[in-house]
Hints:
Distance between the termini of chain A: 49 Å
Shape of chain B: elongated
Number of strands of chain B: 6
Oligomer: heterodimer
Helix content of chain A: 10-25%
Low-confidence stretches of chain A: none
Number of helices of chain B: 5
Amino acid sequence: xxxxxxxxxxxxxxxxxxxxxxxxxxxxxxxxxxxxxxxxxxxxxxxxxxxxxxxxxxxxxxxxxxxxxxxxxxxxxxxxxxxxxxxxxxxxxxxxxxxxxxxxxxxxxxxxxxxxxxxxxxxxxxxxxxxxxxxxxxxxxxxxxxxxxxxx
Amino acid sequence: xxxxxxxxxxxxxxxxxxxxxxxxxxxxxxxxxxxxxxxxxxxxxxxxxxxxxxxxxxxxxxxxxxxxxxxxxxxxxxxxxxxxxxxxxxxxxxxxxxxxxxxxxxxxxxxxxxxxxxxxxxxxxxxxxxxxxxxxxxxxxxxxxxxxxxxxxxxxxxxxxxxxxxxxxxxxxxxxxxxx
Lengths: 152, 180
């Protein structure tokens, strides 16, 4: 499949998928409610076989959070980016660590740095930050630390 | 020795030639400092990109063994000098302190690059970086750069040698590189 065919094929996998143009890779936006279903299909579909999650991160846009998942298909050499907008006050999204095992610690990192709750994650706790950081999310744009931070 | 170049291992005393060999005279403290400065064993310690430059300094092209630094030790108990090659974060600070405490006296510290000197690019708006390794352990020589070139690190190492040869004081010393 070329890029247009791949985008059309992915667009048919679920309702309400939107694509962001202009990037090197296909950027697909999905609602958090439909997120896990889409990810299961991307992994299981024989014509896609996205078997490798090579990046999982989050962006704080001050108005909302965006989860970003980079997927790769080692069989067909496809790369796509799946994004999902989350509410900033109570960010919640389904875990995908049973689909791609590597997501287990990536999700813990996003949990500690951005405060996103991953539903049904088997072991959601701090990854690198020391004890006592629960509830403080240093990668949020409005994070304040009076002791250690020198504001510019 | 190349004409005009300063000898880096100038012996602090006199050598008297006799028919059966030489007799050396000098103050014992000076001789100890002279020997000590030419056999400094660095600790293998690098926390970010400065460590790449430090490895380059150790490798054949720059070759810090010319100045007596080649025996990099993987344990602080056998090392003489820490080259803080990289960012020190709050979580690393107690580790660095413990490594420093485990080095037997006399011990020396070089803060390599902007991060180890002041926090560098992480000075503002960060929650995790120590703004200068001298908040944790005393530093003898600071190197500017981000990261410094191997020549800069070599200059810092030679400066440390000069410092040790001049008595190893913590105070600021003036080093005249033109003196013979």
